[in-house]
Amino acid sequence: MTRSPKTVVPVLCYHSVGDVRRDGTLRWSVSPGDFDEQMALIRERGRTPMTVSGYAAALRGLAPLPPRPVLITFDDGFPDLAETALPMLRRHGLAATAYVIATRVGVAPPPDGDPSLDWDQLRELRSYGVEIGSHSRSHRALDCLRPTELHQEIAGSRQVLQDGTGTAVRSFAYPYGYHSTAVRTAVHAAGYSSACAVKNALSHPDDDVLAIARVLIERDTGVAGIAALLDGTGWPLAWRGERLRTRGWRAYRRARHLVHGARPRLSQPTL
Ligand SMILES: [Zn+2]
Q1: How many domains does the chain have?
Q2: Which residue from 40, 44, 52, 144 lies 20 to 30 Å from 249 (Cα-Cα)?
Q3: Ligand 1 centroid to 169 CA: how many Å?
């Protein structure tokens, strides 16, 4: 039975696919050779690739969940998604979802900032069938923002990306994985039908469609790590709601935000 709670759904969260990254971010950049091997393994294991919106429809009971599903997602919209990863995804016939930061698309990065996909690349990804989702307007920690700022980051980014790509944007990914009840409510109100968190846990048919669990794939995850993920070993099943330590960490960050107006620096590893 496909909706058995024992069905585990690995949702992989990649960032960059390349070998040249600035200090501190190489950890989140998988080498092209490793990425190709990982995609080949997913194919060999007979996994059914889905976009996040396809999976969300199954979570909502609107469509059947195919056997042995797997999801491949990319955060932050690095250009190597189109230049390096896309040809490999195509060769292996794998669907994917890309979460991009609306105000960075096609804009030259600051001296210490990361490059971004441009609009032509986004349309190319879209034409292959890669789902384009929003990773907010400017990649701030949303659970520390005021309602008007939240609206700009969540609803505003959706509008920008829909205008730029000419297609509906239906999924959202929380910057740094941070979300709260207010953030999830704003995502729903803005018209998104799904959202991805991180959690470093395996998703399953009873997962929260507005906080889908993903596992961060790092440079040293390797093929063995992906194999373990596909086997459903080494990671817990996703839980509902927030863990106490998550709430405590948010209280600390909110206090910092009030005192310093601090936002995460662009140069810190983006998640
Ligand atoms: Zn991010």
Answers
A1: 1
A2: 52
A3: 17
Concatenated DSSP letters for 14-34? E-EESS---TTTGGGEE-HHH
Residue with the two structure tokens 């297609």: 167
Full domain range(s) for residue 74: 11-260
The pair of three-digit structure tokens given for residue 206, joined into one six-digit string: 């009873």
3-state secondary structure of 133: strand
Q: How far is the CA of 206 from the centre of ligand 1 (A)?
A: 25
Tokens 């205008």 correspond to 163
Report CA(98)–ligand 1 centroid distance (Å).
11
Question: How is residue 238 written in tokens?
Answer: 């996703």
Distance in Å, CA 175 to ligand 1 centroid: 5
Q: How far is the CA of 269 from the centre of ligand 1 (A)?
A: 9
Query: CA dihedral in degrees (190, 192, 198, 201; nearest 10)?
Result: 140
**Distance of alpha carbon 194 from alpha carbon 54, whole angstroms:** 10
CA of 193 to the centre of ligand 1 (A): 19
- Measured CA to CA, the distance from residue 111 to residue 191 in angstroms comes to 35
Contacts of 40 (CB under 8 A, 6+ apart): 92
Position 257 scores a pLDDT of 65
Question: Does 4 fall in a domain?
Answer: no
Whole-number Å distance, alpha carbon 63 to ligand 1 midpoint, is: 29
181-199 confidence digits (pLDDT tens): 999 999 999 999 999 999 8
Query: What pLDDT, in 10s, does the model give residues 156-175?
Result: 999 999 999 999 999 999 99
Q: What is the CATH number of the domain that holds 185?
A: 3.20.20.370
Distance (angstroms) between ligand 1 centre and the Cα of 132 equals 14
For residue 231, tell me if it sits in a domain. Answer: yes
CA of 4 to the centre of ligand 1 (A): 31
